[in-house]
Queue: 2 jobs
Job 1
Amino acid sequence: MSRHIAVLNGPNLNLLGEREPDIYGRTSLAEIERATKERARTLGVECTWIQTNHEGELVEAIQNLKGRADGALINAAAFTHTSLAVRDALLAVRVPFVEVHLSNIFAREPERRRSMLADLAVGVVTGFGADSYRLGFEALARYLESR
Ligand code: DQA
């Protein structure tokens, strides 16, 4: 059965490739989007993609998942560590999601080691650079397939 996975990206991820490349690598978000959509095609999964720098827009994007997406791949970036509003939106829609991060948030500053979202996720992929998206997407597609 064809599935729809929505990929949601939070603040500053539009700067990937130029932003702190030692931490986040040199791959741009557009390149990650291209690779993820290509993988989606081979898996027969529909993939939609958004990036926003605004917390409210991320909340609305999550609210809009209801009835539209079977699952979501979410890199909430800094909102991961701070946003009760993003957490509440995920609790409200109850769409299965995988949390992804390019860097290993557990190996970074103490304030990044806490995720407001992780306990609600099907799983978390963190620390594999751009590959975190591929791994998370494949794992989520397989999870949705098995349900
Ligand atoms: C990030 C990790 C966050 O701590 C940070 O605020 C980001 C990116 C990552 O993908 O490694 O913007 O989510």
Job 2
Amino acid sequence: MTGTFPIEKFKNLPTPFYFYDTHLLRTTLEAAANAAKACGGAHIHYAVKANANPGLLQIISQAGYGADCVSGGEIERAVSNGFPAAKIVFAGVGKTDAEIRTALAYDIACFNVESLPELAVIDELAGKMGKTACVAFRINPNVDAHTLDKITTGLNENKFGIAMQDMKAAIDEAARLKHVQYVGLHFHIGSQITDMRPFAALCARINELQDELDKAGIRTESINVGGGLGIDYDAPEAHPIPDFNAYFQTFRDHLQLRPGQQLHFELGRSLVAQCGSLIARVLYMKQGTSKKFLILDAGFTDLIRPAMYQAYHKVENLSAPADAACTETYDVVGPICESSDVFVKDMPLPPSSRGDLMAFRSAGAYGEVMASTYNCRHLPQAYIDDEI
Ligand code: LLP
């Protein structure tokens, strides 16, 4: 259904709102699961941070996916929407004691540990609760993902993970502690990565690290390579589903797993981005001195990616006739009193006017979840196609 919207139903709904195409979501989940299966049967944990909408979470958990959570709140949200705790991993550089206790109480699968002080706290809290926590160490592989600076995470200069040279000391420390059990290594190099070479470079780095561990006689049950697969923001109709085959095949070709070792992924954006759109109305068409502005009732409080990362979301006028030519050029902006509240500049569009419905495409990931109430604005509503 990509590109076609139930516009008659939209006409009665207050804007702005998110709209999710669950048919596309299900097809995408199936494509990713099949591609993972064809590459030796990896475990995929959906990165809840990309979109925590309960309706979507239920579809994703029913499709058999695990969850990758980064807060106690996400763990609660994942469990209450059908994800078995045994398929939940918990990442984050700053886990609070309360969040660690929540995770321990649920008996989640694994903590992705990012520092030795954090390991000590998990050990202490697990001891007090009479539990043993499974831990994986997030290793910073110093691989450049060549993506936006603000979403690159695998370089030495980032705050994430444990440096490669400290990996062995961390594993030794886990062996010494009584209430943690070392099970794996965890990596994540960044997000919106569409070139497979950084993933191949990550595999090469993991192979080197595993050679070191083999020499030390250390056994690792699972390798978690994180997420990061990008999507096509420019042409969502042409590429509604990312190339999961190429992605998983890269790991199959380059990663040397040890016998019996499990492979885990944490995909977020690639699973949910294309199924979501932000729908807004044109409030005013304003003729400036040299430009025309379409002022919408949605702003960066509803979709912050353009303002925060200079990200592009394709915008379409849903009220214009399907065959209308893009004869006008507009800056499409929001109502917020900040010059960063611009969705896109110099966008060719059909002639547009007050009341027209506009769709920002590819907004299913890091859209609704990043909305704010700045300016005392209301959070956008969200609808799933079969609910309206
Ligand atoms: N695992 C870890 C440890 C992560 O930090 C992330 C995303 C993921 C998995 C999922 O990555 P994905 O498959 O979605 O690329 N707000 C930004 C993106 C931030 C990504 C943060 N980490 C944006 O709107 O582009």
